[in-house]
């Protein structure tokens, strides 16, 4: 395997301190980061280290439950919510990520996808409390993005209203399994290269559990940045910062002015890589189903939030199926036997 090429690109750091008085200054910084990098680091965001630790404790408690218990709240591709294990096949790899994840929402999509209180006392309340904190931070970003694009301040906040039953915003707990350090010839993927399809993602990492890498979209020369130059984004417990990235939705809503950026959690395979168990938490800002999505210059036809999300899910699902079909075609060509039946799921931002 060729060695991964790296460079130390600067991920801009943006402080939300004294937000009310600094909105315009923060807007300028956010617009610059969104136009040029697609990733930025938020500090002074108001979520304390203890609050982040608490949700990571809840995440560990959830994932330590037996699979049969977690399977009571299975992932649904229609609702983009629930638990999956070793089931997310990324178009960039055509193979399942070696991880499990649990996606939670505020609205009707979550019906029947919470474990009961006896199984995991306090979990639901604390998870929703944390998601509300992430929403509060997100709404500050939304005001800035609205100003940057010439929309009224509340424009994106209304389109992402989590108190409405058609909210599609997702809090995602992720748990990557330890990877054997011996070279056993098996190629494993943690989170294959992808762009998120949401508005903006807030990512919480744990100290020492590295692996997140980015390849800014304007610099990637291949669809999934396979042999491109990547940049490691290390967790920074000192600053308690949140890593944020622009998703496809905001890219489209800004008429491509802001860039959705390729990223991955690298499958460890080179010296210095982190092979241990890894936990992370992502908060994907998704539009209400009824939101109307169109950029200021109307570059793309108007879509509802429901249509945008459905298209994104289908795009991923289609690419996965095509990858599977291609593989199967190759297998059949070699074997000349009957086709095998298999099932796949597509999940994520
Ligand atoms: O686990 C991470 O650090 C990143 C996860 C991610 O990119 C995703 O779930 O979309
Ligand atoms: Fe992602």
TrEMBL record:
Keywords: Iron, Metal-binding, Oxidoreductase. GO terms for molecular function: metal ion binding; oxidoreductase activity. Gene3D superfamilies: B-lactam Antibiotic, Isopenicillin N Synthase, Chain. It comes from Cyphellophora attinorum. It comes from the Eukaryota. One of its GO terms (biological process) is small molecule biosynthetic process. This is Fe2OG dioxygenase domain-containing protein. Residues 166-287 form the Fe2OG dioxygenase domain. PROSITE patterns: FE2OG_OXY. SUPFAM superfamilies: Clavaminate synthase-like (SSF51197). InterPro entries: DIOX_N (IPR026992), IPNS-like_FE2OG_OXY (IPR044861), IPNS-like_sf (IPR027443), Iron_ascorbate_oxido_reductase (IPR050231), Oxoglu/Fe-dep_dioxygenase_dom (IPR005123). Pfam families: 2OG-FeII_Oxy (PF03171), DIOX_N (PF14226). Belongs to the iron/ascorbate-dependent oxidoreductase family.
């Amino acid at each position: 395997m060729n060695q991964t090429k790296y460079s130390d690109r600067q991920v801009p750091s943006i402080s939300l301190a004294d937000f009310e008085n600094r909105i315009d200054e923060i807007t300028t910084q956010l617009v610059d980061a969104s136009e040029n990098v697609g990733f930025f680091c938020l500090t002074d965001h108001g979520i304390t280290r203890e609050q982040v630790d608490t949700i990571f404790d809840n995440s560990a408690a959830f994932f330590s439950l037996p699979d049969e218990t977690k399977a009571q709240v299975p992932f649904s591709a229609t609702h983009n919510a629930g638990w999956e294990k070793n089931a997310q096949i990324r178009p960039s790899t055509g193979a399942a990520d070696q991880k499990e994840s649990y996606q939670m929402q505020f609205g009707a999509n979550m019906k029947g996808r919470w474990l009961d209180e006896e199984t995991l006392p306090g979990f639901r309340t604390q998870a929703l409390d944390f998601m509300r904190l992430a929403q509060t931070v997100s709404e500050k970003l939304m005001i800035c993005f609205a100003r940057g694009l010439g929309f009224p301040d509340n424009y994106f906040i209304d389109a992402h209203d989590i108190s409405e039953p058609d909210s599609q915003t997702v809090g995602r707990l992720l748990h990557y399994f330890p990877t054997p350090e011996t070279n056993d010839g098996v190629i494993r993927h943690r989170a294959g290269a992808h762009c998120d399809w949401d508005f903006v993602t807030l990512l919480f990492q744990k100290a020492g559990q590295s692996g997140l890498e980015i390849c800014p979209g304007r610099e990637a020369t291949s669809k999934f940045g396979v042999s491109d130059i990547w940049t490691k984004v290390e967790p920074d417990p000192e600053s308690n910062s949140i890593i944020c990235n622009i998703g496809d939705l905001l890219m489209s809503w800004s008429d491509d002015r802001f860039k959705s950026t390729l990223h991955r959690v690298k499958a460890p395979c080179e010296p210095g890589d982190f092979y241990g168990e890894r936990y992370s938490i992502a908060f994907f800002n998704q539009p209400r189903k009824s939101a109307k999505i169109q950029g200021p210059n109307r570059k793309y036809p108007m879509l509802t939030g429901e249509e945008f999300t459905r298209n994104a899910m289908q795009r991923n699902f289609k690419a996965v199926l095509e990858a599977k079909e291609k593989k199967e075609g190759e297998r059949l060509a070699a074997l000349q036997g009957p086709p095998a039946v298999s099932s796949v799921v597509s999940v994520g931002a």
